[in-house]
Amino acid sequence: MRSQIERYEKLGLRDSLPKIYRYPIACKEIGLILREAYIQSPKNLQSIIFHDTLAAFRLLPQIQTQSAVSAVHFLLQSVEAALPKQKRNMAVKEFKLAMVAHKRRSKLHHQEEKDSFQLPHDVLVHIFSFLDMQSLVSVGLVCWSWNLAANDNHLWELQYVVLYGNAAKQELIKQFEGQDKRHLQDPIDTRTITDWKEAVNGAYTGQ
């Protein structure tokens, strides 16, 4: 039992949730674990997974991206499919509260952008796609909306290809082919693939 808990904690999902570019991936990972391994898990581990699920919903208002909303809806579907009634009701309530808060914050953020003549997120991402890695890191320090755009996962996928080549990218992906089903008995941290900023940092530092 302890071994399963340690394997789950090694995934680092709880630490990933507060980070904008990791949040969607962490939500999907928790969702997959709920669907595939929650029922078979010991009660102590079930409790940890459940509280991470609630934490994911509560953090949604802070993550103002469309990918976060899509990921949290996937997590909700997993909740409805895997959790027992009482816990399911608690989680659904947290989800609804989080969506209300998210919409309010999103509306306020869009108003602030309108008042300050901020460029739309997709336009910023397109502009930033022409930057090198050092410049991309620098623009991410300017303001909140630029930081959000500079951490776009696709931008860092492009950086990975520029730095290490498309062959290295394909080799990295190939290492995880056929690993679609992820169970706690054989945990796979897919952030090394889908989190391209993490992949760039890992390759850059030789990890």
TrEMBL record:
SMART domains: FBOX (SM00256). Pfam families: At5g52880_ARM (PF24104), F-box-like (PF12937). It comes from the Eukaryota. Residues 113-159 form the F-box domain. Transmembrane segments: none annotated. Gene3D superfamilies: 1.20.1280.50. PANTHER family: OS05G0526300 PROTEIN. This is F-box domain-containing protein. The lineage of its organism: Eukaryota, Viridiplantae, Streptophyta, Embryophyta, Tracheophyta.
